[in-house]
Amino acid sequence: MSSPSPELPHIATFHTHYGALCFQRRLAGLGERAVLAPVPRKLSVSCGTCVRFSAPFQTGWAGEDLEAVYAQEGTDYRLLFQAEEE
User: Fold this and answer.
1) Which candidate among 21, 40, 51, 82 keeps its CA 20 to 30 Å from the CA of 76?
2) DSSP symbol at 66
3) CA 54, 55, 57, 60 torsion: positive or negative?
4) Bridge partners (DSSP) listed for residue 10
5) Minimum mean pLDDT range among 5-14, 17-26, 65-74
6) pTM: predicted TM-score of the whole model, two decimal places
7) Residue 18 φ then ψ, to 5°
């Protein structure tokens, strides 16, 4: 079970591991703290890998593999962004 991470309050989920890796690298390239992690059980989704990050989410960061972005609030999660289904 993932524990709350106040220093990395945002969680992005992806359709593929590659999408998660690209997103993490993009944020790191912008000087933002971002780490790959297992998706919390409450958010169990496609590839099982998420990116935890601290910066406020910007929709311009959304790539085709991004599934959703959540704000972690204690042990709960609030949906901030969800990709449109094709």
Assistant:
1) 21
2) E
3) negative
4) 53, 71
5) 5-14
6) 0.86
7) -60, -40
